Here is the input.
Amino acid sequence: MYAGLSDGDLAPRIAEGDHEAEAEICRRMGPRIRLYGLRHLRSPSAADDLVQQVLLKVIEALRNARLREPDKLAQFVLGICRMTVLDLRRSSNRQKELLAIFGGDLVPDPPPMPTLDDRQLASCVQALKERERSVVVMAFYDEQTASETARALGISEANVRVIRHRALQQLRDCMGATQ
Amino acid sequence: MTTPQRGRHIDCSNPLETAVLMDYWLADLSSAVEETVEQHLMSCDGCGDRLRGVIALAEGLRALARSGSLQVVVSDQFVKHAAETGLRVREYAPPRGEAVQCTVAADDDLLVARLAVDVTTASRVDLSWCDPQGVERQRMADIPVRVDGGTVVCQQSITWAKASPSATMVARLLAVDEKGTERLLGEYTFHHTRTIPGPPGWEMP
Here is the structure.
């Protein structure tokens, strides 16, 4: 029913009391908010909590027609994500309170994460050139930036980025990725 | 590398490059680019799916890096950080031209060789692993070295070491010039004694 509608098209419907449109927004936005949460909170459970809290605020705002420009729904949601992550960092108590009140009602099932063949990945990494392997291992061991890896290995930051990108492309090719 | 442009209509006809998604995951983008990427992801499920693939690869690499099963040149800070985060690190640092007795225990997580060397005159350094007769069994070509570091830190595969029977290995650090001429920078001998039961015979990883 809503397949042909953009995210922005759904916003006014929610203000008119369309609960199916609310469900559709949750279905669309939930996985996107979860990715934001994974990136900034580095925890699947914290990302799930973020989805709950953000969707709650978004639906409340849309029901009350507080989004004046529906075409800017994505930016609106992103802004709530940012504020909520800041709130979460400031006060984990507030998070617990909200979760106690609203439970898991708003959270759609997240899309499954792709799985990798660990042995194949190890074989692919071992096949990299020495510098590439060093950069990859050090970059991902504790998610170092290019700057940190460059300092540790005594090569330039730009070189680290080039090596890292090249190595990751080789790994994706080796693992059979299509994009 | 292309990044999405602020203000343009964004859909999957303008997909984020995989390299940008990986930089995003590693928190290695400028704040302005990161904001643009996040706006794109908040309205593009195709790139979200690709980001999930990037996260899976990153998580797999992190697990692999922490497993200690790779043979790789690392940094001093890497080893310190591993120890600080609770990994049990076994290190050997034979002086140049000398030998050391070594082993690994079942609960070791990382095995590291520290090879003191002066690389200030070398444009390229190879690490050659030889048997006691001097026959090269493996070469790690063009390893990353800090000119001011004075030490090459090589992580050996702990998985392989735990399975290896007692044996002697010789590590040679070689300076290689543009013509392929090699110059010995240092030689280090490891007498490995097995302390974990396992099958006889072994091959270099």
In short: The domain at 7-102 of chain A is CATH 1.10.1740 (Rna Polymerase Sigma Factor; Chain: A). Chain A touches chain B through 55 residues (CB under 8 Å).
